[in-house]
Design goal:
The complex is a heterodimer of chains A (314) and B (243). Chain A has 314 residues and is α/β, with parallel strands linked by helices. Helices cover 34% and strands 21% of the residues of chain A. Chain A folds into two domains: 24-36 and 46-242, Rossmann fold (3-Layer(aba) Sandwich), CATH 3.40.50; 246-311, no CATH class. The chains are: A alpha/beta (314), B mainly alpha (243).
Chain lengths: 314, 243
């Protein structure tokens, strides 16, 4: 009896995975290592921040880089903007190799930093003036409209804004340049739940409008992440411990961890990552194959981080 | 992957954008220096008091005053706006140089226009040119003015690189010490050059040259000092950008 190999495209989940591999990358980072120089003294030894970070942010998708405090999320974001230079590895943003030459990020990248970068006494008017002086394409009307929508007056100084409003100000500033890649560093950290939800909707709308746009966000907020994130990279102490398309990761690590006929799930075939997950699962006291069956991306990230911690030498 | 080759016009455009950003972000420094310069000039013109040392000190401190309060935040802003570190360093050096030259011009004008005591030597004197006598700044004035200009710009060279990443109190002190040190060094070098010219003209027996050797020597030393520091600053700014 001849058996026809199953068409992978018949399976919707599988189709998603195949499509992902064909999508061009907005950001590609390979084996990145970064040392942070001493802020004032050039003779002092730099501090190692990243040792081995690899991630891909496919075009037209939302990619999240997650990790605990000090994992290297912000350092990764800062390297993508050219503010920090790679010590080793490869960084490519919108097809431009960043290299070690201190090149800035190419046009088309909108940065929303975790803290305002512009002078505290600046207003929206100053931002518009700066962009005009620099000859940048900048949608001043759209910028002011977004600020109005967030309840920020055009003459309000940055120092007078709340932390959440400052984030929305930076977001409006970045979006007014109509970026092909929106790079956000901890955008949810200072936002209330309503603003957070609106921001996620805005991300989705943005990608629905034009699938050549991409979003890369650094966050430690795992709540409801699978609702909007397509791709994830988990960082721990300056290295990537888990990376891939969300659907593929959930399928590989969580569904595979469910019990099968006569076996306990722990005995079924699994790679090193799953073994780590199971060890972590024990460490956090979850029953195998039960809680995980219904678990989401947040649980997977938490488990990967727990696994990474348990594997660390004490 | 697309190879990114930065062409010369692209690099110039990048530097122009960096310079515009610099001019916008340094507005408070420009306003501060502008107000001080205006007051000093008005006081000199009104023959009230001669405060030429104020713009001179501001010129010495300009590299530190333009320095970042938070270098990493500044780098992130520049990166986010798509400005390379090289363009930023070149723009910052040019901005500081321009500000220093403007402040030094104010200091020189203050000396020229300000009130003088009877014991001080005159800064304006009669010069004969083509049979006509005109009142112009004396060689002594030019010597002093160009000497402190050289010292200020050489001190910029000493502190410029570190001032790109810090504006700490230590850096302010370093700038002042560098200026005083360079004042002595430029004075010694200029004196040695002048002496060499005087002795050289004596040795070759050129009487006409000997008559003017002091003035020629001074002019040559100024040219060497100022030209040297401008070339050095131009070159060092490229090294700082690559560092």
């Amino acid at each position: 009896m001849s058996t026809t190999p199953p068409d992978p495209l018949e399976d919707p989940g599988r189709r998603e995975i195949l499509e992902d591999s064909e999508v061009p990358a907005a950001v590609r980072v390979e084996n990145l290592a970064v040392d942070i120089p001493h802020p004032r003294n050039r003779y002092r030894a730099p501090t190692p921040a990243l040792s081995d970070v690899s991630l891909t942010a496919p075009q037209g998708r939302i990619t999240a880089v997650v990790g605990t405090n000090g994992a290297g999320k912000s350092t990764t974001a800062h390297t993508l903007t050219g503010a920090l230079r790679p010590k080793a590895g490869r960084v490519e943003v919108l097809g431009v190799e960043m290299g070690a030459s201190g090149r800035p990020c190419p046009p088309g990248v909108g940065l929303v930093p975790d803290q305002p970068l512009l002078p505290d006494e600046w207003t929206a008017q100053d931002v518009i003036r700066l962009r005009a002086r620099m000859g940048d394409e900048f949608d001043a009307d759209g910028f002011l409209r977004m600020l109005r929508g967030s309840g920020i007056r055009r003459r309000a100084m940055l120092r007078s804004l709340s932390a959440g409003q400052a984030t929305l100000f930076s977001l409006a500033h970045a979006l007014a340049t109509d970026p092909r890649l929106l790079l956000l560093d901890e955008p949810f950290a200072r936002l209330d739940p309503l603003a957070r939800s609106e921001l996620v909707d805005r991300f989705r709308d943005r990608l629905a409008e034009d699938d050549s746009r991409s979003i890369l966000l650094m966050t430690h907020d795992l709540e409801g992440m699978e609702r909007y994130v397509d791709q994830v990279a988990v960082l721990h102490r300056g290295r990537t411990i888990l990376e891939g398309a969300v659907d593929a990761l959930l399928e590989e690590h969580l569904v595979a961890a469910a019990p099968t006929h006569g076996t306990s799930g722990r005995e079924s075939e699994a790679g090193g990552a799953r073994e780590s997950l199971i060890r972590a699962e024990d460490a956090v006291g979850l029953a195998a194959g039960t809680a995980l069956r219904e678990a989401g991306l947040g649980d997977l990230v938490r488990l990967s981080l727990s696994a990474a911690r348990t594997e660390e030498p004490r | 992957m697309t190879a990114h080759v930065e062409s010369r016009p692209a690099a110039h455009a990048d530097t122009r954008r960096a310079l515009r950003l610099e001019l916008t972000l340094q507005r408070p420094l420009l306003w501060g220096c502008g107000v001080v310069a205006l007051v000093v000039l008005l006081l000199a013109l009104g023959q009230v008091v001669r405060l030429g040392f104020l713009p001179l000190l501001l010129a010495v401190m300009a590299p530190i005053g333009a320095g970042p309060r938070d270098a990493h935040r500044e780098a992130l802003l520049r990166g986010g706006l798509g400005i390379s570190r090289a363009a930023h360093v070149v723009a910052r050096t040019r901005f500081v140089l321009g500000l220093q030259l403007a402040l030094l011009a104010v200091a020189s004008l203050t000396i020229l226009w300000g009130p003088r005591t009877s014991e001080e030597s005159a800064v304006v004197g009669p010069w004969n040119a083509a049979g006509a006598t005109v009142m112009l700044p004396t060689a002594g004035f030019w010597s002093d003015a160009l000497m402190f200009c050289s010292a200020v710009l050489w001190s910029h060279l000493w502190v410029g690189r570190d001032a790109l990443r810090s504006s700490s109190t230590l850096m302010w002190a370093r700038a002042l010490v560098s200026f005083l040190g360079m004042w002595v060094v430029t004075g010694v070098v200029a004196g040695a050059l002048t002496m060499a010219l005087v002795l050289g003209s004596q040795w070759i027996g050129a009487d006409v040259l000997f008559e003017h050797s002091m003035t020629i020597g001074q002019i040559l030393s100024w040219a060497v000092m100022l030209g040297g520091v401008l070339i050095a600053l131009h070159r060092r700014s490229r090294v700082w950008a690559a560092a």
